[in-house]
Amino acid sequence: MKKNVLSLMVAATVLTARLTAQVGINTANPQGVFSVDGAKDNPLTAVATAAQQLNDFSVTPAGNVGIGNVAPAARLDIVGDTFGIKKSQGIGSWDNFWIDLSDSQAPAINASGADTGLQFKVGANATGTYGNGQTLTTVATMTPAGNIGIGVTAPADRLDVNGRARVRTISPVTDNTTVNPAYTDANGVLVKTSAGETFGSVVSNQSASIASGATGTLISGLPDGGIYKAVVIVGDGCANTAIGEFLVICNASGDYFAIRGVTGLLSSSALPPSFTETNKTTTGVTWSGKILCQDGGLPTALDYTLTMPSASTINITNDGNVARSYRIVLTKYN
User: Does the global pTM surpass 0.70?
Assistant: First the structure.
């Protein structure tokens, strides 16, 4: 008798499903061709509320699948706060969208056939035309050509940024490394000077500490044929800073290399230095108005002499009475 009753129930269920073209699990009121009410909390007649739908799974006659949504508007329409794809249980958390492989594989997002590129959009709860009152903003775009746009829907370069860009960390160059400046054209694209042009390049050297009366190398390895503006900076223990400016030609052919003082400034007196051009490769520098300092420096403590023993080297002699650290920065003119 029990077997007959069970057979009748199964037959009735199948017949009902065929007649209505709807199947429901935990619900007598399926909202699609296939509906699952996980918490069995949907009403018998009316449409489930948004809160009741959060535990539902539904498939529509159009083939759309809804999770947490009984009326999916897309092939896969998920309603919820968090989503995740994880390799195994207990990995990651559910406060973001996760793709967690937890091994050496690199996760990938494939957009096959995306002729116009791949866009990443975010929405804010504001008045708009998109679902749930949200207005979507495109924050990043990747094109099939490999261009990436930040705040740009059609990036024209490998990296196209509409807005300010920031680099958190920049590595310093090593001693005597030539650094070429970057500029922007009328469209804001980063450019550099024409091929073969090096105007504005900077060659810098670490500070050289020279004892009183001693001579040491301030910079070496300068390229042959270079023309520079050189700035030498030296200070004392009393916040005095002396900045001297020089013109330098580094042409080894025919010994056509030279250095000559141009101008400068001493912070304590606001006066320029006096230059003594002994010859084309030697220039002495003396400062007026230098006061005594508790580091033992006399009024001549910041004086020095620059010499060029070769086209590629600039030496400095400390003409003061205490050891000093000197720094040189060269800006290339050709």
Answer: no
